[in-house]
Each structure stands twice: as C-alpha cells, then as structure tokens.
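Researcher: Good morning. I'm working through a list of sequences from a screen, and I'd like to move beyond sequence-only analysis. For each chain I'm collecting a predicted structure so we can compare shapes side by side. This is the next one on the list. No need for commentary yet; just the structure.
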Amino acid sequence: MEEFIDRLSTSASLDRAAAQRAAFTFLNIAKRHLSASVATDLFHALPDAKAFIEQGGEQPRPASGLEEMMSSAIKNALGVEDPLVAIIGDLKAAGLTSNQALLAGQEFLRFAQEKAGPSVIARMTDEIPGLRRIN
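Model: Good morning. Structure tokens for this chain:
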C-alpha cells in the first residue's frame, strides 16, 4: 500500500495523511460496493489492501455539503447509495479539494489497472458506472 499512498500523494499533491485517507476511501468503497468476485480479484492483486482497510476500521464521515445531500436524495429515491457520490463525499470530508479528488480517483484506477489488469477495471466500472467518468 505504500506505493499506492506515495502515488496518491504525488499525483494529487496530498500530504501523507490525506493520501492515506484517500487510499482508505477508495479501498473501502470497493469493498462495500463491488461484488464479491470483483472485490476478491482486486484485493488479490493488492495484497496489503485488505489489512490496510481492516486496520483503518469503518471511519464514519460527517455530513458535508452538496455531496451529502445528493447521496441522501439518491439513497431515498432509489434505496441505494451512489458509490461515486459516496467516494466524492468521503474524499471531500477527508480534506481533499474537488480537483484533488478527481486526480486521486484517476490514480486509483491507473494503479488498480496496473496491479489487477484491465479486465478487473472493466468489471469494476460495470458495477460502479460512475468510475468511468473519472477515468
């Protein structure tokens, strides 16, 4: 996970703590919103990822602005949380700007593709279609 955290720090101009929070956010969303088979393939390619999020624990985030309102509205209307809105809200709650969140998301997809391969990324974006918008 050190490589991923370092890459997030560099690509999105984040300090180490913010990069760690961003890494936790992406991996936790993947754990929560991907099917078991896709999550297993992703976490198999990132061997330290599972331990990293288990050490981080479930970190609730405070309600924050527009992203929280959108997430609540979607959840109320559809009965499910929009993973992309959740990612953005979690990253903003972790102190990232919108531009840093976008850059971190792009780096997450690049890193995951390098480690897990394009077929896993394709399956991820099939299950969380909003990820295509940040690629």
